[in-house]
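Tutorial, part two.
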Amino acid sequence: MLKYQITSEEFAQLEESQQGFYTQNGEVYQLAVEGIPQPDVDGLKRQRDELLAEKKAEQDKRRKAEAEAQQREQERLAAEGNYKQLFESSQSATAEWQQKYQALQQQIEQSSINQTAIKLATDIADGPNAEILSEFVTRRLKLVDGQVRVTDASGNLTVSSVDQLKEEFKNDPRWASLVTGSKANGGGAAPLRGSPTKEPNQMTESERKEFKARDPEGFKRALNAGKFNPY
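Running the prediction step on this input gives:
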């Protein structure tokens, strides 16, 4: 019985009279019989090419979608990075502005304190003495709610006024060498023990001696100014 399709080896083993019934189709031989449909090779090839084209188009579409998604993700990350940089830059600028503002506030506060201290010191001392005294007065002042307030030696706020602080410095023996005699008591002498304040021209000889022992500088200024009456 003849096969419909045989290989080239099988074809070579056939008798010559049998080989006439076959036709070569590529690498195989097919029985040439009328009525048997021959495969549509071209149609199959077209169908295969169409399937391959569809598969390739689907792959290209998927790769394009993946690339677009990746691009969007990169743009999102880049945008987030920019926002972060802008935020950090804004925070840095805000911190710098706050530092400058605080420094300016401190300068204004210190200026107000210094002016008050200098005025107080010049009310009770002269020249370099007033400048030195103002340094110590400054330590007893603090700006609170825009107003210069008096503190104690530990820096705690008190109810004392600036004028009261001035009297404290005038009468504190620690600052006697800086305070001008005439400014301290209005007459060149500090209050005498057991007696009211006197002008130099009203002092007795013993009061003059006590004044000189207690306030040599004030005594010298009063003497040079001719405030003492001759005995």
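Residues 185-197 have pLDDT under 50 and may be disordered. In part three we will examine how such features are distributed along the chain.
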